[in-house]
Sequence to fold (857 residues):
Amino acid sequence: MNPSMPEATAVAVRDGMIVETGTIETMQPWLEAHSHRIDERFSNHVIMPGFIDPHLHPTLAAVLLPCHFITALEWKLPDRVSRPVQGHNAYLDRLTEIEQSLGDPREPLVTWGFHKIWHGEVDRQTLNGVSKTRPIIVWQRSFHEIIANDAAIDWMKLNRDDLGRHPQIELSTGRFFETGLSVALEGMKDYLYASARFRDGLEQVKRVVHFGGHTTIGDMAVPLVDLEREWPQLLDVIEREDTPFRVQMIPRALARGGSIGRESEQLARVGGLIDRNTHRLQFQNGVKLFTDGGFYAELMQLQEPGFIDGHHGEWLTPPEIVEGLAREFWNAGYRIHVHCTGDLGVELALEILEKLQFERPRFNHRFTIEHFGVSTPEQVRRIADLGALVSANIYYLHELGDAYWKHSIGFERASQMARLGTVAQYGIPTALHSDFIMAPAQPLNSAWVAVNRISESGAVLAPDERLTIDQAMRAITIDAAYVLGMEHEIGSIRAGKKADFTVLESDPYETAPEALRDIPIWGTVFEGQPAPL
Amino acid sequence: MAPANQLPLKRVPVTVVGGYLGAGKTTLINRLLADDHGLRIAVLVNDFGEINVDENLIADHDGQTLALTNGCVCCSIADDLGGALATISSRAPRADHIVLEASGVADPGRIANYAYGQPGLALDGVVILADCETVETRAGDRFVGPTVRRQLSTADILLLTKTDLVGAAHADRTADRLRRDHPNTPVIRGGDAAIRWDAVLGVGMRPNAFLDALPLKEPHNHQFATTTWWGDDTLNRDLFIALLRSWSSTLLRCKGWVRFEDTPETSTLVQMVGSRVELIRDNDSSGERLHGLSFIFLREALSATALSNAMSGCRSSELVDSTL
Fold:
């Protein structure tokens, strides 16, 4: 991914760093000067710069990965493949199969991935039909709802009289949604956050990250809940010799409450985190802000004409507080990442950035629009004008393109979600991310969506917004490094960079675009150390 | 006088206090914690750092919870409302009333659902603060307009704040517009200093107190007047509800016991907070109960005679023996 030398057949590595790239012949001066060993194990492979996902959530994934996945779309995980399960009966068959495979009859069965568009109506009685005695909890794909059987309601130690009064709990169907979900989570939390389970989840996350071919990831909102509880576990699991990747930790700009006039406290808190840095877990100068609500939950803030059903999105942080914090961190020289899912969220981020540029202009600030679900073409131009970057969850288009076209915002805007072709046209550096566990943590899969824009049903949505293979490969390597402010260290194969590689069985540039996601990954090299899958 | 009966619902009432940033929620909560109201009030706030009470009042401070010498506690929500409510509910002695601060961008209706459904709690009402200086601008703002308008429309009671910071004409104009846009919601006016909790929380109106010690003490604020109505006659449910609704822009609260002609053998607890009316039948009908209602009206709104006449109009046509 170094345009000055697009291809090479040899790379010389010393102490985890690349000292020369080229051919055996061109690197002779180095080879003559130093004792060396030529390793030809990858002579039939393609070595790419190590893949980078600048935005995922290892700690959230650690809570969810130990769940049993039953998903409408295929999810490839290191220890299992969650085959696509579509249709009501297929869903129940799979659930029953899992139920029967569990040894301990008291062990709760928590499954994730359910969506009624694909799996039909599942309620308490349906789940009682699967088991009367084992607690079964079906966690929706969007995380905003669970369905419980009678054994689970008892297991959560919930009082049925109280549940019956709750407007967002339907005892008859066993559905707990929105605020009702928090009642259920309260009953589940000792189980979900138990230290052994969380640790097992983190070990799984570690395998998932390696499995996708990553050598660097960004943890794009630290902490999940409580840093003092999460940090020791992260150190134990990630800061180990067998971990073939590093994590840039991007703290939340706003921790618990916090309000206008007290931004300096947040700046001081964030500034202090850097003292924790270890080899693999690094705080740098990035910080995370949130504007509008979740995309899967349809809580993004939209400009007119909004949602088909007329509902409104929501702000995760009051706009004035976003602005106050953005100003504090901007003036302190931070790299600001802003979660924006809808075009009104993007608009807010750009309004703020424009004010900040007026007050105190900065070059090379790396202000990044994160997620980039719904946007307008004019906003893309402003992003370019203001020097901002885009880090997109392109998987929205694949999984939700059809559903949001038919049920949420209509074809025009749904088909143009994550309009990366326009972004590329304006030359805006762009990363692809998974927001794992919102999308599979597989950069080749994200790149596949970006170059094909194939929806779940197989339709090609807004073909003009497709990326070229080169643009997509940059978005998971050098441009992703740029978004994390690490392009001087990683993201391409050149002298002086870390010896991080993703080793593929075939060349993405020689692969048909539709087959991009099927390229087998041999494994990775992290700082010179091979790590086969 | 008949002995006071237990409430049919022994749940702690929760008042949700909402409103956009800068509407005065924290000022209100600081006053509540410091005021001498004789109640154990638990306050759940988003940001602990804003709470400002006299250090002499602090009995204990353990990070998430601040206990005061007057029996009040303040608990930080810290992204876990369910957990904070559970913490407060498990404290002994039990709080008399819980005040729940909705964050500036929250939909208070959703927050109210927590209170409604949480074990051991009952929703009292939703009080939304509207800042005279900015509410109209914000209601029209492209980013927060829909959020602010939704908050205002969720209110059972609208409380206009910072009236002392703008001219009287400005305050009048804002109040008029709020009344026009929310015709069924009482709009209380007050500078920060004039806000009294007895009206907002219905202090002194809890049915037990109501039956034990009549007459009610007068609310402290000159804007409100308390009126009491007594009657053992059965009422026509539809006429009564229609009457309450007709007063909804000026009647702040109404609480007490009545009997309806369709269920003459049991008493019904009436609980009205602004635009919210709840009728709860008493499952335990043993013992006699005194029937009557106490009202807090905006002062100028109603005379005692008019109240009595209006209530007479709700009597059931069929005469029912009052000793039933």
Q: What stands out?
A: Confidence is low (pLDDT under 50) at residues 1-9, 206-219, 318-324 of chain B. Residues 207-312 of chain B form a domain with the Hypothetical Protein Yjia; Chain: A;domain 2 fold (CATH 3.30.1220.10).
